[in-house]
Amino acid sequence: IGRNFLGDAPDEWQVGVFVARDCTPHLECLADLNTVRPDGGHAETVFNVGLRHPLSEHVVLMGSLGRQIDGIPGEARATTFYVGVQLLR
């Protein structure tokens, strides 16, 4: 849970939960539920599922696919995704 103080937009509250679990010895399954509510605005909630796979001792491949499940009435729900590489020391 947190509070975002923004310069060019209304401040907002953010709350979420993140879960990670080993699916196989070399694959970690991820899920998160996150809600952001600007002051005086409508809450927007996104649910994501993803994977993390180590490529080496210092490099991890990550990916996620999500869908907005709640938001501003009358607006289309957004689909989100990302693919990334995490570099570890």
Short synopsis of the structure:
The protein has 89 residues and is an all-beta fold. The protein has no helices and 6 strands.
Kindly estimate the percentage of residues that lie in beta strands according to DSSP.
over 45%
Share of helix, binned: under 10%
* Assembly level: single chain
Number of strands: 6
Q: What is the CA-atom radius of gyration, in angstroms?
A: 16 Å
Strand order of the largest sheet: 1-2-3-4-5-6
Describe this structure in words.
This protein is about 0% helix and about 65% strand. With about 90 residues, it is mainly β. Strands 1-2-3-4-5-6 form a six-stranded antiparallel beta sheet, with no helix packed on it. β4 and β5 (about 60-70) form a beta hairpin.
